[in-house]
Amino acid sequence: MITQPSLSHAISLLENELGISLFEKDGRNIVLTKYGKVFLNNVEKSLEILDSSVKTLKLIGSGEGKIQLAFLRTLGTDFVPDITRKFLETHSEKSIEFNFNTIATSVDIIQGLKERKYDIAFCSKIGKEQGIEFIPVANQELVLIVPTDHPLADKNSIDLIDTIPYPQIFFTSKSGLRPIVDDLFTQIGKEPKIVYEVEEDQVIAGLVAKNFGIAVCPNMPILNSMDLKVIKISSPNFERLFYLAMLKDAYLAPVVHEFKNFVIENTEI
C-alpha cells in the first residue's frame, strides 16, 4: 500500500513532467482540475485497451483468435470454403474466425506474406522465394477453352500443338500459372500467338467466351456456366498444383499452427 507522502511525491513528479496541475483544493478537499479530469479519462481508456489486449493475447495463446488467410480467387468456390469449414467444425469449442483475403496473383499473395499482412495462404509456388515454405495441398487440371463457334469446338480432347494457328489469351508474368503454361508450349517446341495477357482466370474465360481468343486455363466450375467449350488437353498432360504457403522463419500463433497441421493432414495430392 502506498503511503500519503509517497503518493503526494508521485503526483508532484507527474505534474512537473506534464507541466500542468492535476489537483486543486476545494475547501478542505482535494479535487481534480479540469485538466486532471481529461487526463484521468484518457488513462482509464488506455487501461481498458491494455486489459483488452491482454485478454486477446491470452486467447490467441490458448489456440483461439483470427486467422488472416489469403488465397487465389479460383480456390474460393470450393477448396477454401471446404477446408476452413471442416477446421471450424473440428474446433467448435474454440472461438476461431477467418479473415478471407482473395488475391488475384500468387506474386501479390507472397508479397502480402512478407509484409505480415497474412498469416498463411493458398497459392501457386514461386520458384525463387527461398524464404517461403510451400507445401502441396491441392491440384487442378489445365484445359483448353474456346468459343462455342470456334473451329476447335467440336473436339473433346486436343494436342496443344493443334492450337498454334489460333490467337491465344495468356496469363501475365505475375501469375503463378504463366511459367507453367509457357513450359507446356516449350515442351511442344512452338510459340503461341499471344494477343492478350490477363491476370485472372475468370477474366480470361470471359474474353474467350466473347471471341477474343482461346486459352489454356484451370478447369474451374465457373466454366460450365459460360458460353464456351472446355476441351481436355491430351498432350502434353499437366496438372496445376496449389500450395499452402507461409514464411519459414515467422512465428505462427497456436491457432494458425493448428490450421496448418489440419490442412496437411486433411489434403492429399
TrEMBL record:
SUPFAM superfamilies: Periplasmic binding protein-like II, Winged helix' DNA-binding domain
Biological source species: Clostridium scatologenes
Transcription regulation among keywords: yes
Highest taxon above the source species: Bacteria
PROSITE patterns, sorted: HTH_LYSR (PS50931)
Stated family: Belongs to the LysR transcriptional regulatory family.
MF annotations from Gene Ontology: DNA binding; DNA-binding transcription factor activity
Pfam families from the UniProt entry: HTH_1 (PF00126), LysR_substrate (PF03466)
One GO cellular component term: cytosol
Keywords: DNA-binding, Transcription, Transcription regulation
Record's keyword annotation contains Ubl conjugation: no
The name this protein goes by in its record: Transcriptional regulator, LysR family
Occurrences of domain HTH lysR-type (ranges): 1-33
